[in-house]
Amino acid sequence: MKLSITPAQVERVNALIRSTCCNCIKDRCLLLGGGRDSPCIQLLCVTGIFCRYFREAILPSEKELYEEIRNQNERGELKCDR
């Protein structure tokens, strides 16, 4: 499941990742990297939430943002093409 986000939400999502995600170190993803130097894919995404870990483990902790994103996707307000 991919969730579409608005440009304004991208900034909030990125701030949440940088402050909360234990897998994101200096904008690099420990899960994707497998010991290699891989960028955090979610920090690169500007149309939606593609990181399953972020979507399931981190985003729900930010209740207001989570509800906003979930509601707009349920109503079909945004389309995530990528």
Can you walk through the features of this model?
- The protein has 82 residues and is mainly alpha-helical.
- It has one domain (3-74).
- Helices cover 50% and strands 10% of the residues.
- It is built from five helices and four strands.
- It has helices at residues 7-20, 30-33, 41-44, 52-58, 63-74; strands spanning 3-4, 24-25, 28-29, 48-49.
- A two-stranded antiparallel ribbon has the order 1-4. The protein has a two-stranded antiparallel ribbon with strand order 2-3.
- A hairpin with a 2-residue loop joins strand 2 (24-25) and strand 3 (28-29).
- The radius of gyration is 12 Å and the shape is elongated.
- It starts with a strand and ends in an 8-residue tail after the last helix.
- The relative contact order is 0.23.
Radius of gyration: 12 Å
By secondary-structure content and strand pairing, the structural class works out as mainly alpha
Compute the average pLDDT.
89
Helical proportion, percent range: 40-55%
Chain-wise SSE layout:
Blueprint: E1 3-4, H1 7-20, E2 24-25, E3 28-29, H2 30-33, H3 41-44, E4 48-49, H4 52-58, H5 63-74
Antiparallel strand pairs: 1-4, 2-3
Name a few traits of the molecule:
single chain; mainly alpha; two-stranded antiparallel sheet; 5 helices; elongated
